[in-house]
Amino acid sequence: MATTHAALGVLTALVLLPVEPSLAPAAALAAYAGGLFPDLDVAVVEHRKTLHFPEFYPLLAVAALAYAALAPSTASVGVAFFLLAAALHCLTEVFGGGLGLRPWLEDDDRGVYYHLGQRWLPPRRIIPYDGSPRDLVLCALATLPGVVAFDGWVRNLLLAGFAVSVVYTALRKRLVEWSPDWLLGL
After folding, report:
1. DSSP characters for 31-50?
2. Of the residues 35, 89, 158, 184, which has the maximum number of CB atoms within 10 A of its CB?
């Protein structure tokens, strides 16, 4: 789920709390956005290919993190943690399920697109599909540290994202049945 990726992104911002606590909330919010960003391709273009770059986001994140370490500011740290979370999102997609409309059937072998190799990396299905109970558990485990460590916008965003995750998980298998054919591309 996108919310799982967002919560995992926020986990990366926890490293700032002991060293630069004033920048940690901005990093956490940027990381939440960065964790969501690659999934914006889900409804518009080719999902897990158009905005997913498992080979490029990490390089950009390393460069941005180095710059933020040398010139820490809300902007530099925000960009760095946005890119770090986007990189983490793309790199972890391979541990999920395929892209089929019913990924629990394991009938699709596209995990995430590897642009340099011009091929799809196969899904490992450790998290069988987005919205699976296992995905919800991972989302809860990723959300909890941020809820404990942060307050205000960060905590509220994490709690709202987790609430959406609970509802999505409860309805996930029914959503395909309830969606109109035009929305599913049929």
Report:
1. HHHHHHGGGGGTTTS-TTTS
2. 35
